[in-house]
């Protein structure tokens, strides 16, 4: 199929992009970033926006800064750039691993982190990493700007707290448990397919007093933290008893609500595998 007709805007400044979006948002106008999710939806006529505001030429949206352990990534940073960047690999190897699981090279070379977060597929690896880091998500509109935490941003299946006239401009975060062990695992029928279930987790660096962090994705309608499991994860954790693991992960899956028994089994398995990758045995 072909998309229904639309007007195409290609602003080169953020101000102009916000003005363009404000003009058409009420009638269903949309932001176009990498187009890797939006273009297929247009082609299937699942959405029929009268106007597309292409943000690909807005230089302000591709700015990136690293102040180890803090990151600031502009919305149009591509997943491919993240997967290849030596700076990202050094500062937060888990994020490089997450990005390398996204689709195929063609998709990663166009798809953006802003698009991935706003599209909010429950299996999206970048969104899961942002929840793990509890990234601060900057949203701008002609009405002003605001910041949402990633933990509150995802509200359901393909749903977020973004308003129709807002543009996600930037993601800011600190590397969780910097310098500590980590694991990222997902199950997909083939590498590059959307994950059926996945998990990412970090353990504190040696000597650090904080707790570990863990997130599951592709399991419920959105990525979510596993706070009960996190209480078991310290810098010195090398083993988690199977009973304690099942109870903690079971509690965390219950808390998010909509988890089928199949996803529960697959998700639990992915969490255990991610722990294994981080050097923690579940037995
Ligand atoms: C075959 C295939 C396999 C894929 N596999 C995976 C996978 O394994 N894992 C995965 O995570 N993704 C996967 N994807 C999706 C891909 O990662 C997309 O790139 C991503 O979901 C959307 O990013 P985009 O930049 O292409 O956004 P677009 O498609 O341009 O936009 C997506 C949505 O976000 C909105 N939007 C985009 N940017 C902004 C912004 N800055 N502010 C406000 N709204 C915005 C758009 O209006 C639209 O509603 C796959 C896609 C395909 C086609």
Class derived from helix and strand content: alpha+beta
Number of strands: 16
Mean pLDDT: 96
Work out the radius of gyration. Answer: 19 Å
CATH first level of the largest domain: which class?
A: Alpha Beta
SSE topology:
Blueprint: E1 7-9, H1 14-24, E2 30-32, H2 38-43, E3 51-54, E4 64-67, E5 70-74, H3 79-84, H4 86-91, H5 93-100, H6 105-110, H7 113-119, H8 125-133, E6 136-141, E7 144-149, H9 150-153, E8 154-156, E9 159-160, E10 167-174, E11 182-187, E12 197-202, E13 213-217, E14 224-225, H10 227-230, E15 239-240, H11 242-256, H12 261-277, E16 281-282
Parallel strand pairs: 1-3, 2-3, 15-16
Antiparallel strand pairs: 4-5, 5-10, 6-7, 6-10, 8-9, 11-12, 12-13, 13-14
Helix pairs in contact: 11-12
The structure holds flavin-adenine dinucleotide.
Pfam families: FAD_binding_5
Organism: Saccharopolyspora spinosa
Protein name: Xanthine dehydrogenase FAD binding subunit
Structure write-up:
The structure is a single chain. With 283 residues, the protein is α+β, with helices and mostly antiparallel strands. It folds into 3 domains: 7-54, Uridine Diphospho-n-acetylenolpyruvylglucosamine Reductase, domain 2 (2-Layer Sandwich); 59-174, Uridine Diphospho-n-acetylenolpyruvylglucosamine Reductase, domain 3; 185-282, Enolase-like, domain 1 (2-Layer Sandwich), CATH 3.30.390. It has helices at residues 14-24, 38-43, 79-84, 86-91, 93-100, 105-110, 113-119, 125-133, 150-153, 227-230, 242-256, 261-277, and strands spanning 7-9, 30-32, 51-54, 64-67, 70-74, 136-141, 144-149, 154-156, 159-160, 167-174, 182-187, 197-202, 213-217, 224-225, 239-240, 281-282. The strands form 5 sheets. It has a 5-stranded antiparallel sheet. Helix 11 (242-256) packs across helix 12 (261-277). The protein is globular, with a radius of gyration of 19 Å. The mean pLDDT is 96. Flavin-adenine dinucleotide binds at residues 30-38, 40, 55, 75, 79, 102-103, 107, 111-112, 114-116, 118-119, 121, 124-126, 162, 167-168, 194.
